[in-house]
């Protein structure tokens, strides 16, 4: 297989060997053309640059003169273009807040299950009442 020339390899910042490994991890991929590898690397690099620039511009980066994780997670959550990244870049929360959220969800889930059981019992009571009345 033809290798990328040194000049082409310098046009991308991401390690091509790592991108090749990621691409080959897909069961549908049997071989990777060098041009496809280069284009995937370059497209990924441009996407990351765009995400960083957008997050910096629309986040608090200008105030601090730095790009932070919270800028990236806010962009993933608020911008429709980047919403597919919301699971990958979740907002950071304190462990104590997360545990409280889990506790609340568990309580809400138990209350919801209890309501369904009450409704089923009421339905059974109505059915029994109808049989007695006939």
UniProtKB/TrEMBL annotation:
Keyword Phosphoprotein in annotation: yes
InterPro entries: CBFA_NFYB_domain, Histone-fold, Transcr_DNA_Rep_Reg
Keywords: Acetylation, Coiled coil, DNA-binding, Nucleotidyltransferase, Nucleus, Phosphoprotein, Transferase
Entry's localization field: Nucleus
Domain of life from the UniProt record: Eukaryota
Region feature Disordered, mapped onto this chain: 105-134
Main localization (coarse): nucleus
SUPFAM superfamilies hit by this protein: Histone-fold
GO BP terms in the entry: chromatin remodeling; DNA-templated DNA replication
Acidic residues bias: start-end ranges: 111-134
Domain Transcription factor CBF/NF-Y/archaeal histone: from-to ranges: 13-74
Subunit structure: Heterodimer with POLE3; binds to DNA. Component of the CHRAC ISWI chromatin remodeling complex at least composed of SMARCA5/SNF2H, BAZ1A/ACF1, CHRAC1 and POLE3; the complex preferentially binds DNA through the CHRAC1-POLE3 heterodimer and possesses ATP-dependent nucleosome-remodeling activity. Within the complex, the heterodimer with POLE3 interacts with SMARCA5/SNF2H; the interaction is direct and enhances nucleosome sliding activity by the SMARCA5/SNF2H and BAZ1A/ACF1 interaction. Within the complex, the heterodimer with POLE3 interacts with BAZ1A/ACF1; the interactions are direct.
Free-text function comment from the UniProt entry: Forms a complex with DNA polymerase epsilon subunit POLE3 and binds naked DNA, which is then incorporated into chromatin, aided by the nucleosome remodeling activity of ISWI/SNF2H and ACF1. Does not enhance nucleosome sliding activity of the ACF-5 ISWI chromatin remodeling complex.
Name of the protein described by the UniProt record: Chromatin accessibility complex protein 1
The species this protein was found in: Chordeiles acutipennis
């Amino acid at each position: 297989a033809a290798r990328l020339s040194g000049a082409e390899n310098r046009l991308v910042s991401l390690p091509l060997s790592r991108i090749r490994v990621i691409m080959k991890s897909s069961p549908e991929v049997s071989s990777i053309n060098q041009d496809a590898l280069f284009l995937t690397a370059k497209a990924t690099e441009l996407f990351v640059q765009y995400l960083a620039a957008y997050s910096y511009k629309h986040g608090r980066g200008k105030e601090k003169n730095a790009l932070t994780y919270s800028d990236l997670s806010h962009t993933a959550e608020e911008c429709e273009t980047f919403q597919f990244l919301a699971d990958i870049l979740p907002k950071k929360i304190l462990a104590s807040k997360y545990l409280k959220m889990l506790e609340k969800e568990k309580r809400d889930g138990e209350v919801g299950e209890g309501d369904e059981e009450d409704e089923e019992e009421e339905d059974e009571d109505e059915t029994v009442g109808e049989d007695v009345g006939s």
